Amino acid sequence: MEFSLIDSQLKIESEKKEILIWNGTCMLDTMLIEVPWEYEKGGFLLYASLHAWKLIFQFQIEGYSCAYIGDSSSELSTDILDFLGDLDILFLSWVDEVKWILGKIDPRLVVVFDASPKDLESVFPGITWVHKWKLRESDFSLEKTNYIFLQTEISQ
C-alpha cells in the first residue's frame, strides 16, 4: 500500500485499487461516495457513515482496518466509535484535537495530510514531511502510535 498527497488529495493505492480523499469526500476507483452506505467495487468494501453532517469512511486495505475522519468539530459518539472499531490506520486532515481523538481511538498508525506545517510543528516537534510513503510492517508498533506526515506535492 502506498500513500501520496497531490494537490491536497490523499491517494491510497493498493493492488490495482485506488482511493482518493479530499475535503471530506471519497472516491473508490471511479465511484464517488456521497451518501452513507456500504459500497463494494471490484471486491473492495468501504463503509460511509454520517457524523455531524459529514461523512466518515471505514475500509479494509491489504488486511488493515482503516478510517478517515474529516472533521473534529464535534465529539465522537459511541455509535461512531463502534462503527470505526479497532483501527490499524487512521487518516486525518486536521490536527486541532489530535490528542483528544487519539484518547478515544487507538490506531497503530496515523497518517496526517493537508494540515498546516506550523500547526503540526507545535504538536509534533521535529517531524519529517514526505510526499509519498510506501507502507512497511515496521511502521506499526505495539507500544505506541506511529505517525506519517504527508505534504502536498503540486502536480505539473
Describe the SSE topology.
Elements: E1 2-6, E2 9-14, E3 17-22, E4 25-28, E5 31-33, E6 37-41, E7 44-51, E8 54-61, E9 64-69, H1 78-84, E10 89-92, H2 98-104, E11 109-113, H3 117-123, E12 129-130, E13 132-134, E14 146-150
Parallel strand pairs: 9-10, 10-11, 11-14, 12-14
Antiparallel strand pairs: 1-2, 1-13, 2-3, 3-4, 4-5, 6-7, 7-8, 8-9
Question: Could you name the key traits of this structure?
Answer:
single chain; 156 residues; mainly beta; eight-stranded mixed sheet; six-stranded antiparallel sheet; 3 helices; 14 strands
Description:
The protein is mainly beta. The chain contains three helices and 14 strands. The longest helix is centred in the middle third of the chain and has 7 residues, at about 80-85. The radius of gyration is 15 Å and the shape is globular.
Regions with pLDDT < 50 over 5+ consecutive residues?
A: none
The tally of helices reads 3
Order of strands in the sheet with most strands: 6-7-8-9-10-11-14-12
Through-space gap between termini: 24 Å
Mean pLDDT: 84
Helix content: 10-25%
Radius of gyration: 15 Å
Order of helices and strands: EEEEEEEEEHEHEHEEE
Shape: globular
Brief characterization of the structure:
The protein has 156 residues and is mostly beta strands. The protein contains 3 helices and 14 strands.
